Amino acid sequence: MSKIEKTFDKRFKQIFIPFLGFIFLILFFPYLFTSNSFFGINFSETGNIGDTIGGILGPFIAIAAAILTFFAFWVQYKANEQQKLDLKIERFENKFYELLKLHKENVNELDLGNHLKGRKTFVHLTNELRVCYKVCENVIPQDEKFSEINLIKFSYDIFYYGIGKLSEKYLFNRFNENEKKLYSIVLKHLELFQNQYNYLIKNPILQDKNYEYKENITMTLLYLPFNGHVSKLGHYFRHLFQNAKFVINQNSDLLDENQKYDYIRTLRAQLSDHEQLLMYYNAIAWFDDEWRELFTTYRLIKNIPIPLADFDKSPLEFYSKEIEQNENKKIFSWQ
User: Fold this and answer.
1) pLDDT at residue number 43
2) Which string of b and e fits 199-235 if b means at least 16 CB within 10 Å?
3) What is the pTM of this model?
């Protein structure tokens, strides 16, 4: 909305139109007052017509001048309000773009081993999570007591905290008894990947870094897998969530819904497809309630590569209700 529209808004028109009519009425007064009879009074016989008109119109002119003064203050008031709004928007944008800058720095600081840095890490992180899920899915016993385990949450726990003695302190605090039993089964299979990586480290002459656990479960071992990513992803996701919430929590007087979406779209433009993919699994595993509005209303992961979300529930299935409710706009580009 332009500054002129904000100054001469609907309220101004409601006041100005009656005032304009009053001005026209004042211009018609001299004719009425000098006519032969106006309300039974013949002003042409009162002597000096100019003095008569001046005496009669003086108060009206003073009132008109007072009203014009009011309008001058009105315009100044609206201009001051606009200036305050512009200052608030400037402060908001300064912080928003500073948060974007910090996000980019967080991404650039990510690394996996000695070969993977920055955005490239997300390609391997999402594949590590996929492999972890597929292994768990492959070895879980066909027993009723394991059927209630949320496999994506279980897999994400292992992916996030890693395996090993230190990691188990975190995991066992989160796992129930059946999950602990499943973990003892899964652990032996995930250790195969770590053993293969250690073998490659000892034999650097080997060029093939791909380890095929089973058909369709393959991992490129450029870093030690399943060693946990708490220190990397914890800070990354917290800051990204803070950035997005900073936008949508702004007062509607400052940003309307369309403007909020535009800023979220700017944030989304900073995210690679694999970043959005990992965000999705972070949401369905741990933080569905926190991310759902950002994903469905503000479409923060609109560019998520649906074909790569090939384990557990697809985004099209997980958010099917919201997709049905928003037929006129795509929540995901791959719909």
Assistant:
1) 54
2) ebeeeeeeeeeebebeeebebebbbebbbbbeebbee
3) 0.78
